[in-house]
């Protein structure tokens, strides 16, 4: 946005008549208002001032992708080049701690898997509270045919609060590869970032 006046730190000159001081004050206020609204606040006339979202650090759709090697499994797994693979006929449970700041809103979660047989896969995003009660934010059981697929939550809106331990969980009962998992979330401002 072009400003009305070019910034001039040497105006007004000392030789200017004192009866024009009110005009100089108005000009200075206009200069400050235009620059503040351009960079920092939404409207200078609001009380209290409202800081622009880009200053606060509001982010919509921030993504956190978890590599397969970040999961802890309760059975023996085969680590391959780009995935971890379970064994035929063995039920496998995997879990990954999900560290997110309080105040963010989780908007989706997914697991990228590959099936080599008719596997049943259960994917969850859960938390444990201080009373050690497990609550599923989302849980889906999928029995789709073989191949690579994303098993996801679809759109959710879960606000992360304190005193909860969040984690992603996956259970499969056949020959399955896990490539990655991930969550997307919205950050309300810079005080809630990771």
Can you describe what's shown?
This protein has 194 residues and is mainly β. The protein folds into two domains: 1-56, no CATH class; 57-187, Galactose-binding domain-like (Jelly Rolls, Sandwich), CATH 2.60.120.260. Helix content is 12%, strand content 41%. The protein contains two helices and twelve strands; from the N terminus they run ααββββββββββββ. It has helices spanning 21-39, 53-56; strands spanning 59-67, 72-73, 78-79, 84-85, 92-98, 105-115, 121-129, 134-142, 147-152, 158-159, 164-172, 176-187. Strands 1, 3, 4, 6, 9, 10 and 12 form a seven-stranded antiparallel sheet that branches. Strands 2-5-11-7-8 form a five-stranded antiparallel sheet, with no helix packed on it. β3 and β4 (84-85) form a beta hairpin. The chain is elongated.
């Amino acid at each position: 946005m072009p400003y009305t006046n070019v910034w001039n730190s040497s105006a007004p000159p000392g030789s200017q008549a004192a009866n024009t001081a009110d005009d100089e004050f108005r000009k200075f206020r206009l200069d400050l208002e235009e620059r503040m609204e351009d960079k920092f606040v939404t409207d200078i006339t609001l009380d209290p001032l409202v800081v622009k979202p880009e200053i606060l650090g509001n982010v919509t759709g921030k993504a956190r992708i978890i590599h397969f090697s970040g999961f802890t499994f309760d059975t023996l797994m085969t680590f391959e080049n780009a995935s971890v693979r379970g064994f035929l006929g063995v039920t496998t449970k995997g879990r990954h701690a999900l560290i997110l700041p309080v105040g963010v809103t989780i908007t989706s979660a997914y697991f990228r898997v590959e099936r080599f047989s008719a596997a049943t896969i259960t994917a969850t995003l859960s938390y444990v509270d201080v009373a050690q009660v497990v609550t599923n934010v989302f849980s889906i059981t999928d029995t789709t045919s073989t191949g690579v697929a994303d098993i996801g939550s679809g759109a959710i809106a879960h606000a992360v609060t304190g005193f909860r331990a969040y984690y992603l969980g996956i259970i499969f009962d056949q020959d399955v590869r896990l490539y990655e998992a991930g969550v997307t979330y919205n950050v309300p401002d810079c005080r809630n970032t990771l």
